[in-house]
Design goal:
alpha/beta; Rossmann fold; Elongation Factor Tu (Ef-tu), domain 3; 6-stranded antiparallel barrel; 5-stranded parallel β-sheet; 10 helices
Length: 300
């Protein structure tokens, strides 16, 4: 790190890089510009709770690589991935702030009033201000996102309820999942609705609630409309296996083993059991009409 450069920074896990995160980062960028300093985000490649409690399995809105890409679009000058280790977790808040000042050249730290860091997260904002005065780090209170309550936990709840459109409003973009096309049951091809069976790239990535969705699918850099089903295929007695299957509109290319990006646009209906494949096919036609109309009318 160039010791000539000094920074205004903020710190957090930033899962999802949602509108609230972007509002905070905007404040960092503005303050850095006012003071002729550089701006930085300090974040972690692994969820801190997973380091402290190895059995914890997070439901991530963004994988580490996805988070870094989204952070790069915010206008921040630097993104620092700080390995969260047990040794780091054991640091006091004061020792951590000294690390930021001495190693990362942070002159100002912008944080929310209720933000907590340091061993056991026992200290609060007033303590950070006092330590900052002693160490040469100005602690600046961030303002909350003004429009509504937005947090990673709220967005996770919405996705777990299938409300992908409201989640997108808080994220500032359509929620997406990337996965590899794997072998499936091939029943869809027999009824005129061939599907790609998707295996998510990482098990920790949150998959929205079971149901049928209108989606956009990126294949080889090109975007297509589609409809996607998440669930246990009750009509076909699929057992307890949860599958993710996408039918891509007007598309005949073989995508086996390829990686697809699925962006969730709108929840259409719950997963249902049908008495026959004919009834299922009739419902799929209705789903297709609804999904095509939604995608056509969606504001891009």
């Amino acid at each position: 790190m160039n010791n000539e450069k000094r920074y205004v920074a903020t710190i957090g896990f930033f899962d999802g890089v949602h509108r609230g995160h972007c509002h905070l980062i905007d404040q960092v960028c503005r303050l850095a510009k006012e003071r002729s300093l550089l701006s930085a985000v300090i974040t972690f490649p692994l969820h801190p709770r997973k380091v402290v409690h190895p059995a914890f399995v997070p439901e991530l809105l963004t994988l580490s690589s996805e988070k870094q890409h989204l952070l790069q679009t915010t206008g921040i000058d630097a993104i620092w991935l700080l390995p969260f280790t047990k040794e780091l977790a054991a640091l006091s808040a004061r020792a951590f702030m000294q690390l930021l000042h001495d190693t990362y050249r942070v002159d100002a730290l912008v944080i929310g009033y209720d933000h907590r860091f340091g061993h056991n997260r026992a200290e609060g904002f007033d303590d950070y201000v006092r330590y900052g005065r002693e160490l040469g780090v100005e602690v600046v209170p961030a303002t909350a996102y003004p429009a509504c309550e937005v947090s990673s936990s709220v967005i996770r709840r919405m996705l777990n309820e299938g409300d992908v459109s409201e989640a997108a409003r808080l994220l500032g973009y359509d929620y997406f999942v990337e996965g590899t096309v794997v072998g499936g049951h091939r029943v869809g091809r027999e009824i005129g609705y061939p599907t790609a069976n998707i295996q998510p790239l990482e098990a920790e990535k949150l998959i929205p609630a079971d149901g049928v969705y209108a989606v956009r699918v990126v294949v080889d850099g090109k975007e297509h409309g589609g409809m996607l089903s998440i669930g246990r295929r009750p009509t076909l007695n699929n057992g307890t296996d949860r599958s993710i299957e996408v039918h891509i509109f007007d598309f005949e290319q073989d995508v086996y083993h390829q990686t697809l990006r699925l962006s969730f646009i709108q929840y259409l209906r719950p997963v249902q059991s049908f008495a026959s494949l004919e009834e299922l096919t009739c419902q799929l036609r209705s789903d297709e009409q609804q999904a095509r109309a939604l995608l056509k009318n969606e504001k891009r």
